[in-house]
Amino acid sequence: MSAVDRIAVLDRRIQDRVTSPNHDRRNAAVLGLCLGVAFSTCFATGLMSLWAQSRDPWIAWPSRPAGLYRISQGVHVVTGFASVPLLLAKLWTVAPHLARVPPARTIAHAIERLSLLPLVGGSLFLVLSGTANVARWYPWEFFFTLAHRAAAWITIGALVVHVGAVAIRTRDALRRDPLDSEAVVASPTDRRTFLGGVAATAGIVAVATAGATIAPLSRVSVLAQRRPGTGPQGVPVNKSAEQAGVRGRIDQATYRLLVIGAVDQELSLSLADLRAMPARTAELPIACVEGWSTSAPWSGVPVRDLLARAGARPGASVDVESFQDPGVYSTSVLNAGHAADRDTLLALDLRGEPLHIDHGWPVRLIGPNRPGVAQTKWVGGLFVR
Amino acid sequence: MTDPAARTSDAPGRGLWVGLLLGVPVLAWGIRGLFAASARVHPPELARWIVGAAVVHDLVVIPVTLAVGLGLRRIVPPTAWPPVRWALAATAVVTVIAGRSSGAMAAPRRCPPCSTATMAGASLPSWA
Fold first, then answer.
1. Which A positions 103-142 lie with beta carbon below 8 A of chain B?
2. Gyration radius of chain B's alpha carbons
3. DSSP character for A235?
4. Which among A129, A143, A204 has CB closest to B40?
5. What is the pTM of this model?
6. Chain A residue whose CA is closest to B23
7. CA distance, residue A307 to nearest chain B CA (Å)
8. Do B86 and A197 contact (CB within 8 A), yes or no?
9. CA distance A257 to A267
10. pLDDT in tens, chain B (128 residues)
11. Nearest CA in chain A to B34
């Protein structure tokens, strides 16, 4: 027997030990298709989130529709969570291939298998790091957002290679009458039980996390890290005043909001001055990048009124500066569209009462269609550009 | 899985080359992003996480799952095996997703693994 024959026999022996229909090719195809849809959805909504957070995008992120970011990011996070059981099941389905001998038979096969490293490692990293971010757990030195973004491009690139390599195989596996499949002959119900179990787990995970953003589900969303209605003034908080280091830093009597930069007349306004200006109330969502969101009535002074009072030019953009510890999120940018939107407010009240300090007392930014990290709290100044 | 003809069709189709043509630039863009922000992304550390995730999954998670499954299958009655298997897998997934609270500002949560275990237990009669 030649060496090639001996390897073939060894491979046959290993693979013949895999008798469970869970490793059936059709299962791999069905799960692959579901994951493809889930990852594409996460990728598209993830790009939207990066666009919304970009300080200098090619096209300005719009301020309308007001709830767009809330929906796109909610979809991103819930789909990402539901991908966890899909991904683990898919990898379990194809796990026997790890033991193939030889690992690759042709150069094309070797390239395909090599592309699985960024695909599998990247996919696992994306769901793991996304989950850790929602739990605000950072067991690494790198900045989550940038690492998650780079890993997403790498994973999607590897996914495109993989889809190219397996497209025909997947189509054939899906077209074939499932009753013809070699594994199903042994146990016709087991394959469906496996897929049903995976679907049930993905469904449970989705329902158990979606209540972070879909209020009617919040009672059953046992896994949600934030829930509508839970938190000071009935609105959840991502980062508290304590965590942001602002407790004791702001004095009501001496507080001044500064409006400076490209203006005709710089402003320095006390809280009484702000309360004396015409107020506006808007029902706006706080939509966190971590997937939770909740809508509430916020009242305060429209930013565009302040800009008009200071004599800023039409189309000005604004840096909103916070009293919190300096960091990536201590400043946010209002592009021209957001700055001019009538509902972009420097809020003083939430549900008719002064803001709780964890919601940014005495003054916070709240505007339509903005990621939560860009709804700057504890605002001390507007720098007009 | 005994049909040798079926196994040889594991070879990638010609679509692989189309996939490489379209996918490699996307992948390269991701790697470019790593190095463009290397001070904050720490490319070597991120690479360790990505490769490490695949290695740990394949060399630890898969063998441990296999061993636990094979071990339990010897003691769990065959009719109870599908719900038991599902309950364990679902509980593991739920624990990974929500086993850690996001700290002081998190909503009060119920024990997530307990929730799944209860659901699995309740569903047992319908499976068996």
1. 105-106, 108-109, 111-112, 115, 117-118, 120-122, 124-125, 128-129, 131-132, 134-137, 140-142
2. 22
3. -
4. A143
5. 0.91
6. A157
7. 34
8. yes
9. 8
10. 334 444 445 678 789 999 999 999 999 999 999 888 888 889 999 999 999 999 999 999 999 999 999 999 899 998 888 888 888 888 888 878 876 776 666 766 555 556 566 566 555 545 54
11. A150
